Amino acid sequence: MPQLLIKNMVCHRCVLSVEQILQQLNIPYTEVTIGEVQLSKELTASEKKGLIEKLQSIGFELIGSHQSGLIEKIKHWIILKARNETTEKEKKWKLSEYLIHHIPNEYTYLSSLFSEVEGRTIENYFIEQRIEKVKELLVYNQLNLSEIAVEMDYSSVAHLSAQFKKITGLTPSHFKSIGDQKRKSIDQV
């Protein structure tokens, strides 16, 4: 069964958007998951061209290699863990344990591939994603910094503040005062 790998699919809405595009283009598929589409048949050249154009118009792109697809999977699972959108059991796992549970490969392979392709470590990407979530929580102004530290599983407010300043160059309180003009979309991190 033909498979397509799609870059920048990071959430359920992304899956729905890709399904909608496939339906609009009358491209038969059996399943759409984050980063992947299982097709019922091979695409014709014109179908592929139309699909590429539609995907690019909403910020997605086809991935040509298995390694690129693996990088997208790593990013997907890191984003979920960084944003605490996992099961209670998974929240307690180390990042390496969590990733190899969802992507059955050696962690050293995943880590070196990610570093080679992305130019940063898995851990750095994870921290950057966590800080983006903290920015979001600060902008929403519904939790104080202590509550955010608990929500995001930081050991202390001091640890959160130090990591936040290291990544953004700003203290959380200064960031909060300037609002969401410093936030990035998930795919820009």
3D structure, described in words:
The longest helix is centred in the last third of the chain and has 19 residues, at 122-140. The mean pLDDT is 88. Helix content is 59%, strand content 9%. It is elongated and about 55 Å long. The protein folds into three domains: 3-64, 2-Layer Sandwich (Alpha-Beta Plaits), CATH 3.30.70; 67-120, no CATH class; 124-188, Arc Repressor Mutant, subunit A, CATH 1.10.10. The protein has 189 residues and is of the alpha+beta class. Helix 3 packs across helix 5 (95-102), helix 3 packs across helix 6 (107-118) and helix 7 (122-140) crosses helix 9 (157-168). A hairpin with a 2-residue loop joins strand 2 (29-33) and strand 3. It has a four-stranded antiparallel sheet, sandwiched between helices. It has helices at 12-24, 45-57, 66-82, 88-91, 95-102, 107-118, 122-140, 145-151, 157-168, 172-178; strands spanning 3-7, 29-33, 36-39, 61-63. The chain starts with a strand and ends in an 11-residue tail after the last helix.
Average pLDDT taken over every residue = 88
Order of helices and strands: EHEEHEHHHHHHHH
Task: Output the strand order for the largest sheet.
Answer: 2-3-1-4
CATH architecture descriptor name of the largest domain: Orthogonal Bundle
Which stretches are low in confidence, meaning pLDDT under 50 for 5 or more residues running?
none
Radius of gyration: 19 Å
Q: What characteristic shape results from the CA principal axes?
A: elongated
CATH class of the largest domain, named Mainly Alpha
Percent strand equals 5-15%
- Quickly give the structural class: alpha+beta
* Tally of DSSP β-strands: 4
The overall number of domains is 3
- Looking at the structure, the CATH topology of the largest domain is Arc Repressor Mutant, subunit A
Can you summarize the main beta sheet?
A: 4 strands, antiparallel
CATH superfamily of the largest domain: Homeodomain-like
Percent in helix: 55-70%
Count of DSSP H/I helices: 10
End-to-end span in angstroms? 33 Å
